[in-house]
Amino acid sequence: MIYLDNAATTFPKPDIVYNAVMEAMKDFGANPGRAGHKLSLRAGRGIYETREVLSVLFNIENPMNIIFTNNATEALNLGIKGFLKKGDHVITTTMEHNSVLRPIIALEEKGIENTIVRCDEKGFINIEDIERNIKQNTKLIVTTHASNVTGTIFPIKEIGKLARKHNIYYMVDAAQTAGVYPIDVKEMNIDILAFPGHKSLLGPQGTGGLYIKEGLDIMQMKEGGTGSKSHELIQPDILPDKYESGTPNTPGIIGLGAGVRYILDKGIDSIRNHEKELLKIFLDGLNEIDGVKVYGPANIEEQAPVISLNIGDEDSSEISYILDSVFDIGTRSGLHCAPLAHETLGTLEQGVVRFSIGPFNTKEDISKALEAIKKIAVEAR
Amino acid sequence: MIYLDNAATTFPKPDIVYNAVMEAMKDFGANPGRAGHKLSLRAGRGIYETREVLSVLFNIENPMNIIFTNNATEALNLGIKGFLKKGDHVITTTMEHNSVLRPIIALEEKGIENTIVRCDEKGFINIEDIERNIKQNTKLIVTTHASNVTGTIFPIKEIGKLARKHNIYYMVDAAQTAGVYPIDVKEMNIDILAFPGHKSLLGPQGTGGLYIKEGLDIMQMKEGGTGSKSHELIQPDILPDKYESGTPNTPGIIGLGAGVRYILDKGIDSIRNHEKELLKIFLDGLNEIDGVKVYGPANIEEQAPVISLNIGDEDSSEISYILDSVFDIGTRSGLHCAPLAHETLGTLEQGVVRFSIGPFNTKEDISKALEAIKKIAVEAR
């Protein structure tokens, strides 16, 4: 299959990721941080090494401020629901994923207010619209780094500056960027950073994480065994134990470490440039096909390599189905768990067909995708 | 290493588990249930098959009533904190793990009362002590199926009957038994069952689950993308989507399915009999070593294959250290995240050295462990 669904999860992964997962399972498959024997210590070390490489990638000072979660969704829930208290106000945008919107909406019944700032039809946010909505009780701004529908890149450094200026905290959803676009939590004033492990960080599914700036008061979602302060019936207050109860996904986290090492070795710029090159070929090619409507910026400097389109008035899921069954091309149709983004684009009814590029896609993949789209567009006329 | 830390996580796993994980990662590493293309559908089918084999194992009618979690701790938190409401009373026991006790204690500040029933010095629960503590507002009884410290088996069928008689719900923590001891949610009146995937179910770390009886009102811990009802800003109410936001641990869950299939093929009785045989050799052997104190029932019919002991007054972590460094035997010392169990046993200061047997241990492992204990006991005299 020509896999162009990398925004959902990257596939394939680098070989060192597969190997790291297998090594963790077969050579030292013990429970980390629980016992003191060799295999347990080795598993614990493996997990710590993943914290270390992530700290390098995101410029995080203390690796213990990284919390491992099952996915970005869990990280976003922990950050949003653990941080906001009754009476607080949170600002977010219409381009967010349901993993940001649904927790924020769910908090309404706990007395936490929200403002969802409308983006324009290409998915761009106007920073002044954020600033205009800041109130006395605004505690947090949450935005994506890049839309999972149109790829539209948000000016997170500028939003971070704005948040700092108003003494508000800033949380970034890096689901579509972590591992490809530079993220520096210090330089960008990011207080809370949520990321999936299995997308551009190239780790296995079942991994994600949350960076929490030192000293932030975030309530844990789970209590349980932490392998620390076991005599106490209340959850220990030390990081990361406070948030990491129970046996972690050791092989997954160690595989994630291998994915991040691959990125650091290869160079994040080199990976991004490869993806941008393919994105350019794709956008240029689409430009020449009649009857195709491309959503979002359609510009490689303003969007991550996520391309959403429609062909005439055809239902997006019908197009995805043909791409899969006739052309063996994997894409994702529908609403991509981002209803307000589709409302913003005007595609709530039709959905869109989303193509998303990963580090292992080739120019040949893109030209085959373009050929297929052309054929379908001709048929649809 | 002679690995006798299977109560923390089983190691090794059957080869089919390693193979299933690799196949899921390499052959169809897509995001399940999100897109409609072949690889995504195959990943989704793999996850559903794991629900199916677990349903067979636990006699669960509808596989969709099984929720996948990161570990048993998350499952216990979801079941306990999602089910209990302000004004409710919950009964549990002193033999519980911190993953039961800490959530229950944390609920006190939300106005949820608890009674922690004291077990005897071998870890046995007296059912009458549970019944005596039932109040008008008692909504839930939570007990372990077998202690993670002494292996003491709880009469869950009888407790289930008691709960039913009083119209109270019953939740079982099967962390030490799922995959080795028979569990039948219908026959045993179990309303909520929490289990780890990576212990006796032989799956990878990063897996666990919660069975929720049809119709129980349990609040989700996380909201987010579910791949269903994407146009809505509130979490969908259908199972399992309500509780499974975000990308799941697909390779882990598929590996868990392989572990459960291994158990079903081999026969749960055959695995249990093997472990009981080794337990008997171990207990008989310990009986002949002077200076060793064994905790719990010391009886293969009354305990899971978890054996806790001390040698004279030696610190338990010192003994575990010697077992690892001199004899290459992996055990776990300390409090095992179960402080009230240790208080019950009178070992809060010394801790205990825990040996736990898995399906791949051999008679030779046990005789080597006995030899090592004997040598250390002679030295310690």
From TrEMBL, chains A, B:
Q: What class of enzyme is it?
A: transferase
Q: Which GO-annotated molecular functions does the record name?
A: cysteine desulfurase activity; pyridoxal phosphate binding; transaminase activity
Domain Aminotransferase class V: where? Answer: 2-367
Enzyme Commission numbers on file: 2.8.1.7
Cofactor names from the entry are:
pyridoxal 5'-phosphate
Give me any GO biological process, just one. cysteine metabolic process
**What catalytic activity is recorded?**
(sulfur carrier)-H + L-cysteine = (sulfur carrier)-SH + L-alanine
Q: Which InterPro entries match?
A: Aminotrans_V_dom, Cys_dSase-rel_unknwn_funct, Cys_dSase_SufS, Cysteine_dSase, PyrdxlP-dep_Trfase, PyrdxlP-dep_Trfase_major, PyrdxlP-dep_Trfase_small
Which key words tag this protein in UniProt? Aminotransferase, Pyridoxal phosphate, Transferase
Its family remark reads: Belongs to the class-V pyridoxal-phosphate-dependent aminotransferase family. Csd subfamily.
Q: What is this protein called?
A: cysteine desulfurase
Originating organism:
Anaeromonas frigoriresistens
Question: What are the leading ranks of the lineage?
Answer: Bacteria, Bacillati, Bacillota, Tissierellia, Tissierellales
